[in-house]
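User: Hey, quick favor. My workstation is busy. Could you predict this chain's structure for me?
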Amino acid sequence: MRAIRPFRRIGLQLLSFGLGLSLWMVVSGEETVERGLRVPLELQQFPAGLELQGEPPSSIDVRVRGSSGTLARISPGDIVAVLDLRGAHVGGRLYHLTSDQVRAPFGVEVVQITPATIAMIFENSKTGHVPIRPKVDGKPAPGYLIGKISVDPDSAEVAGPESAVNRASEALTETVSVSGARATVTDTVTVGLIDPTLRLGSTRSAKVTVEVVKAPAERTLRDLPVHLRGLAPGLSAQAVPSVVSVGLRGIREGLNRIEADDVVVYVDLSGLGSGQYPLTVRADAPHEAGVTHVEPATVQVRIASVK
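Assistant: No problem, here it is.
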């Protein structure tokens, strides 16, 4: 029969007792403090077939009490408020939050919760379909216009609270730019909803096609004077030829309103000294039309010193 030795582990027992006593002395010697914290609010046991009207609070404020060392060691997520939604039904509900509904580490006491009551309105879930409206930005190249705009698919399934689905009128796409385009633009972009209480079904992207076509009317303005820009002081300049023709394209009504003085033709002489230069002719036209060509496209400019 094995002999009983009650003092066999006395060393380990004394060591454990000493460590426990030391820990108790350290903790008991710390000051008790309070601290305000913002903690996440979890919604549990959400009933099937119901939706929340509006955005529920994602966090609440709590005041906690404990030793200064314990509170200093609290990390994000250590304290969480939990709201059980079992038994919820259509209509308005009030939920009271108590300290029993806040999970906190050992040694931390929850002394206050703000707000202490949370109001929620529940609705039946609903699904529906809304048209997808593509968003297009920018202007095509001069003399070109935006034609037919199409999107594939042309509608999206949405789900959410019944009232939100009933008032939903469209889904939007990311912006498709046609700036400077001379041909049809096609882009696959993300589809989204403005109302945050709604969510999309399987349609998360769409292919947007924007036709870019030549404007239907053209007009040519002749004998427009070539202006000399950027000529340095003490110099004179002369362009040969001194007049050019400018072709315009746009909507007929807009073209008919354009006068010769509305189109400015020029060459840039910035940084040039005495000599003879072949320079490109540029033209600025009103926004109603785009410049299709300048004839001739270049002119000879002679720059000389003024005595």
